[in-house]
Amino acid sequence: MSVAEQSIAGAEARGHGFLASSVGRKVVMAATGVILFGFVTVHMLGNLTSYMGAEAMNHYAEFLHTMIHGMGIWVFRAVLLTAVGLHIWAATTLTLDNMAARPVGYRNQKNVASTWASRTMRWSGVILAAFIVYHLLHLTTGTVHPNFDRANPYANFVNGFKVPAAAAFYIVAQLCLGLHMWHGVWSCTQSFGLAHPRYDSLRRNFATGLTVLVVGVNISYPIAVLTGFIH
Amino acid sequence: MSKHLNLTLHVWRQKNAKCDGKFVEYPAENISPDMSFLEMLDVVNEGLIRKGEEPITFDHDCREGICGTCSMVINGRPHGPRERTTTCQLHMRSFKDGDSITLEPWRAEAFPVIKDLMVDRGAFDRIIAAGGFISVPTGSPQDANALPIPKQSADLSMDAAACIGCGACVAACPNASAMLFVSAKISHLGHLPQGQPERHLRVRDMIAQMDAEEFGTCTNHGECEAACPKGIKMENIARMNRDFIKASLTYRPATSGGGVG
Ligand code: HEM
Ligand code: SF4
Ligand code: FES
Fold first, then answer.
1. If DSSP codes are grouped into helix, strand and coil, which group holds residue B134?
2. Average pLDDT over residues A26-53
3. If I label A108, which of A2, A222, B48, B103 is the partner at 20 to 30 A Cα–Cα?
4. CATH code of the domain containing B79
């Protein structure tokens, strides 16, 4: 077959749509990732109410459950569930494609530009998925909580983190979130095509700043409980 | 005169695409530090031929860093340890006496091994054939400066056009992604007025062909940029993604009529 004929043969696959294409799925992963990072940032800020005492936090929780006549939280849940689902779908199919693209590896490949965060995205992602399930069973449904009280989210939060194993898993998951965010926030700008030498250092610094802020504050919660600062 | 080198090579030997390959150890003795890496291999091969053994097969052509034919992964890095240097432009002074050097072919599903260190990079040709061109109705030549092109666009286009299609980006990428190569071709034409008419078609067709060839996808590790002998930047990948998003959002199927009212 000549090159032209081969390329015509390949053209059959060329009609393939946005979601089937590699770049299209990267864009889905980036867009859903932005939704999820937006959520974790707002979630981190909302939980700052725990530093203001039981009343403030319970009041905030009540607001979340009653806004827009109780509909608001379900809208948020639907958006987040869809985003997580699409994100995992894109991540899984792309990862499988990438593994198939190099069936035989190198004896000793020397990485010179990639980071530990970039090379562990799929593992930090899997730990985050496990954490999300656990976190919902822990503080939303209370299924795996030692003494859950639906009417008192503040008490659930304090009592939940008094269990050292629960606090430890929470902290490990936050460190994974840090790795995922630090690479992901930068990476998604690239997937959206937002690159320009003028803004390159801004992209990196924004990723670092947001990661340190979200992960730092999130980790402070179980530490504040364990040290008795929040009680 | 500087001291000659004695080295140990661990070379991937594979008879053809179907056979399994394995690493074989060869001494490379009395190598001048002024030799190029390929000249060193020529010397080793002459020794093998004299002994009646099969010489090591590797790709090469211009040997002056411009054709993109030489390849091979040297101690875990495509084109070896020096930045922005092709294998043919790598000199033995980059190595020390007693070094042990591992030589492997580019590793990718889309680049099957033909023999030893030589792989089939036809997938790149098929990606170019899918859209890496402009259609020019020929006729008498246009005035040289009839098309105004800003100097910066010309420079950016030339930077992208420096890609020699060697495939080191694919070899270096942990996902065997060809996005640096494809994006270099897209940027090369996309910066120029001649590239505009087919710009959106081009990006969709070339990416579809890239996917059909079973290259991986970029996860923004940056290994391609570090390995590229021509300094192609990842900014090009972002530009390609941008073009692809725009092209997908505004796509309309081709129509036969139109323009006649
Ligand atoms: C739930 C389980 C998750 C899995 C299995 C997962 C997996 C992955 C994988 C494999 C990548 C691709 C790596 C790369 O392109 O470098 C990725 C990228 C990304 N992830 Fe996740 N992830 C998960 C959860 C999350 C969460 C909770 C967030 C946000 C809080 C998030 C945000 C992102 C972003 C923004 C990207 C970058 C997208 C891009 O490069 O365009 N992910 N994820
Ligand atoms: S982008 Fe660089 S590494 Fe990739 S094919 Fe072109 S010249 Fe080679
Ligand atoms: S042989 Fe032509 S670039 Fe190396």
1. coil
2. 97
3. B48
4. 3.10.20.30
**Residue A15 pLDDT class (50, 70, 90 cuts):** low
The model's pLDDT over A129-140, given as tens digits with 9 standing for 90+, comes to 999 999 999 999
Q: Angle at CA A123, nearest 5°, toward A121 and A128? A: 90
pLDDT of A8 > 50? The answer is no
The number of domains in chain B is 2
pLDDT band with cut points at 50, 70 and 90 for residue B3: confident
Confidence of residue B241 (pLDDT cuts 50, 70, 90): very high
Copy the structure tokens of residue B81.
């340890």
Instruction: State whether the beta carbon of A128 lies less than 6 angstroms from ligand 1.
Output: yes
Contact A10 B126 (CB under 8 A): yes
* pLDDT surpasses 70 at A7: no
CA of B158 to the centre of ligand 2 (A): 14
pTM of the predicted model as reported, rounded to 2 decimal places: 0.93
In chain B, what percentage of residues exceed pLDDT 70?
Answer: 97
Q: Is the pLDDT of residue A19 over 80?
A: yes
Domains of chain A, residue spans: 3-226
Contacts of B164 (CB under 8 A, 6+ apart): B65, B66, B67, B68, B86, B229, B230
Q: Do B219 and A11 touch (CB under 8 A)?
A: no
Residues B126 and B97 in one domain: no
Q: Give me B251's structure tokens.
A: 């796509």
Q: Which of B107, B211, B234 is closest, CB to CB, to A102?
A: B107
Q: Is the CB of B69 under 6 A from ligand 3?
A: yes
Q: Is B187 in the pocket of ligand 3 (CB under 6 A)?
A: no
Separation between Cα atoms, residue B163 and residue B176, nearest integer Å: 17
User: What pLDDT, in 10s, does the model give residues A160-217?
Assistant: 999 999 999 999 999 999 999 999 999 999 999 999 999 999 999 999 999 999 999 9
The answer to whether residue A5 scores a pLDDT higher than 60 is no
Tell me whether residue A1 is exposed, middle or buried, using C-beta atoms within 10 angstroms of its C-beta: 0 to 12, 13 to 18, 19 or more. Answer: exposed
Which residues does residue B108 pair with via DSSP β-bridges, in sequence order?
B111
Q: C-alpha dihedral over A117, A122, A127, A132, to 10 degrees?
A: 110
CA distance B142 to chain A (A): 29
**Does residue B86 lie in a domain region?**
yes
Query: Is B41 part of any domain?
Result: yes
Q: Spelled out in words, what is the top-level CATH class assigned to the domain A3-226?
A: mainly alpha
CA of B48 to the centre of ligand 3 (A): 23
Give the best residue of A6, A22, A179 to mutate against chain B (max B CB count within 10 A).
A22
Optimal mutation site among A26, A92, A110, interface B, most CBs of chain B within 10 A: A110
